[in-house]
Amino acid sequence: MSDPLGLIGQAGASHNRALGPGVVGPGKGAGGPSFRDVLMENIDKVNELQNDARSAMEDWTAGRRGDIEGVMLATEQAETAFKMLQAVRNKVVQAYEEIQQIRV
Hints:
60% of the residues lie in helices and 0% in strands. It is mainly α.
């Protein structure tokens, strides 16, 4: 499976990132990027891939582009990136709902 967002390769290093302002992961200073920054960067990447796929499809239908393979590849990359981002979102929502269930 391809990893257009780079989330799979970072899975082992994710515990070394700063968890937010004032909260630091184990053995790491506060110099790393926050979860919000990483998430926003990946949302921007997904948006860029979707825009590239849209423009490739428009170029192909207008006759300015002749390689259907490139159009299909751009579309698949955008779709895979969106599905991966959606899976991350679902996991964050699931974790939030589990935290809500904790009795104090």
